[in-house]
Amino acid sequence: MSSSPTPSERERKDAEARAREKEEQAKLPYKWTQTIKDLDVAVPVAGNLRGKDIEVVMTKTKLKVAVKGQDAAIDGDLTHAILVDESTWTLESLPDGGKEVSIHLDKSNKMEWWDAVVTNAEYKIDTSKVQPENSKLGDLDGETRGMVEKMMYDQRQKEMGKPTSEEQGKMDMLKKFQAQHPEMDFSNAKFN
Known about the structure:
By secondary structure, the protein is α+β, with helices and mostly antiparallel strands. The longest helix has 20 residues, at 7-26. The strands form two sheets. A four-stranded antiparallel sheet has the order 1-2-7-6, with no helix packed on it. The chain starts with 6 loop residues before the first helix and ends in a 12-residue tail after the last helix. The protein is built from three helices and seven strands; from the N terminus they run H-E-E-E-E-E-E-E-H-H.
């Protein structure tokens, strides 16, 4: 029977996995980063190229980036769908004299991490280890924001020893019932 790893063993394994992942990602012909809402890809190209020398094909589910007449740096099905009308690409000059094709992909599902840009990528990341940036309540959709605000309120109430919103609702309902039925005696009643 195997025991679970100690915190130091788990930390060491995570560090090794991060180092391997970083090494693998460095081997790709492009660099990429993501937030929960979007993904940015940078493909280095020669400094003498112009926009007309670059071929970028973006659809809801596919991405191709190539210098015309050369093998594509990226060519495959996207890991997840994008919003094509909100996605863009530009050719940018770099301080070292080179250029890069900078691609911004707006995710269709703004609540999931991608393990790779395209499904045929040689290397993928472990999305369970992604450390999301701090987000603001304003970044969330209305339903999610309401749920988070309720959870935050309930947490503050518990910390102060006060009833949560659900407990307060039950107490208010009981008071209303008592007011409607003054003839009933609740003095010895016990509630869970």
